[in-house]
Amino acid sequence: MDQAPLKDKSFSMYLNLSPKESYMVLPGWDTEKPLGTVVKHDVIEKKFWALNLTGLSVGTKDVPVTGLMAIIDSGTSNLVGSTDLVHSLIGDIVLDGDCSNLGEMPDITFTIDSHAYVLKAIDYVVYSEMQCVMGF
To answer: Cα–chain-centroid distance for residue 46?
Structure first.
């Protein structure tokens, strides 16, 4: 990015379940896509595209985030964190192997700066015809 002859160093990614329909736009974003609200965040550590993680919750239970950052990695399919953090996050969640209780699973909310990003169970559970597992 530093070497690109661009004044605007922003980028966006459109990720689809079909890899052939996913793409990156540099600079800016695809103005043809209906985006809704665009939220911008400052990168606080450029080495890992780290953002300021100010909150994390599972349903109504807050998970401590002091000293943690949210790292953007479009090449990672799962949510990744330390064993302690992941256990605090999903330790009380029970997921049936056949996904029959998917509708009962709690929302997981990541707050970056002051903007909350809510993941529904369908966003963090990986399922196929054979099994159902959490993507952590």
So the answer is: 18
